[in-house]
Every structure is written in structure tokens, then in C-alpha cells.
Amino acid sequence: MYRTAITSHIRSAILTALIAVLTACGGGSDSNSSNPSAPAGGVHLQVVAFGDSLSDAGTYAPIASVVGGGRFTTNPGQVWAQDVAQYYGDTLTPAYTIDIGHELHAQGGFDYAQGGSTVATPANQYQFLTDVIGNIQMPVTQQLSSYLGTHGSFNANQLVLVWAGSNDVLRAGSPPAANTTVEAAATTLAQLVAQIVQNGATHVVVVNLPNIGMSPQGLKSPDGGANYTQLAQRFNATLNAGLQSNGVQGKVVVVDSYAWTTQTIANYQANGFVVSNTGQACDPSKTPRDTALLCSPATYTTSNADQTYMFADELHPTTRMHALFAQYVQQQVAASGLGR
Asked: What is the model's pTM?
């Protein structure tokens, strides 16, 4: 019996060693699939995000969670930046969160995006849910300086996501004055992207503005969203020119959210939605302040509205819309030669 136990132990040891050798050699199969620690994206990356509500992972959650909210989508769903981070084996959390006294406190996360933020306009120059969160939003200029002040630089193991400018368009008014405002914001954003690259970032995703005129808010506006659409187009053209003049257009992945939103809305049923840009997943009569920030399953229009509607409120995407956009971004990153 003692001899049988020894033999069994030896066989077990040999089998373990053989498995280790096969795993190290790939075992005749995909080495990523044999490595349980490999993320879906095929490469581990730390994600850093700058921008506005479209990328905010929960800056205002400490207050909004009281009513089941926390992010500008169909809560408890994630925003696209969180989905992308998860794809590359990371968990994206807010760099700052608000307290009941309307003050921001550093949390150590790498999502600097904040709902209500513009590219460079100070928070106290406009009103945005001030009774709920106050005027404390950091513009992207301040988000970047805050990151650099804390971390010093970027590195090759990071994926930096930049998506801003929607609030600049929404608050710009009408041309011709609005044209100057929008162009200035886009020019500044291009300069910030160049600063990110100059400070060591080697993997940077820059997302242009979506077709804001096709949002429910745009459709409800007197001109049917034409002004928002034109200003978004102007912003995007200026951003592209700015990236080129700053010498970084070939060093970043530019994601065309304008074309993506336009095409996705036009083909909403083929993309798995039941309601296009004509409805809101968060019932305005049930959702406090009619904002996705305070939306929860209890205020959904239907129980599965987070998956069947495209927009949570008048401006912000639902959980499914965010997830689909994240997949599109991941494809663009893979096409650039990073991961899969």
C-alpha cells in the first residue's frame, strides 16, 4: 500500500510537470486562451480617462446613489470607458468623488472625467445640476494638470481615453458667436492631447463628438437639432486640424463617434434596439430632475429599457449603447496594432 501511494505521487508529479511544459510551449493552442490571466483584449493595460459625463465612472455616486443613480446612463450600468478598461484587464474608478458638502476628494482612481465638464471653461461660469452637485466640475485642462501633478507622466502600459467637447457645444448658443466658442474648445483639446503624448503616453484614444443633433434633446429643439449637428461637425473638423498641426494625429487613435452614432441610430433595430433616438429609457415622470445621473431600474420606462433603448435621458446613452460603443473603440485600438 505504501509503495502504491509513492507510485501514485510520482505519476501525479510527472503529469503536473508535463502540463507545465505544454502550457509554456503553448500546448499546440492559442497561448492567450491557456493563460487564465490574459484579458479579453489580449494585453493588460491601465486605463486613464479624461472628459465629461459620457466617460464619468461615478464622480457623483456618493450623492446620486441615494436614489439608485451614480453614472450618466441607465444605472447600475457602466459607461464605455469602464467597459474598455475591463476588456484590457483593468477596473476604472473615479479619480475624485463628491461629498455631501459639494466638495471633491481624491480617491486614487484613474477616471478624471466628470459630468458637466467642458474642455477649459471654469465650473462657476455655468449652471449644471447645481442643487445636486454644485459647481465643482473640473474642465479637462484641470483634469490633466491634476493627473500630472499626482503621477508626473504617462507610460507605455497605459491606454489614455480622451472624449470631451459636448458640453462646449451644448452651451455655445448659436452661430456666429457659437462658432468661435466651439473652435476654441476644439483647438484647446488638440493641445491637451499633444501634452498627453509629450508626457509619455504611447497609446492614446481621442474620440470626436457624436452627432449631438440626433439626440432626443436635439430632435426636440426648434431646428430639429441642426445647430447641434453643425457645431459638432465644426468641432470635429477643428479638432482634426489641431491634432495635425500639433504633430500628433499619427500618434493617436482617432475614433469617429460622429459617424458611429449616425449609423447606429439609422440601423437601430439591426443593433438590437427596440426604441431609437425618439425615446428615453429613464421615465421623465419618475426620474428625479429627468437626468440619467439619478436614473435607476425603478425609474426605467420598461424593465429592460437599459438594453432596448438607445438613450437614457435626452443626451446620455443607455448601458447597451455604451457597451456597443466600447466594442467599436476596442476594434479601432486593435486595428492600430495593439491587443486584439
From this structure: 0.89
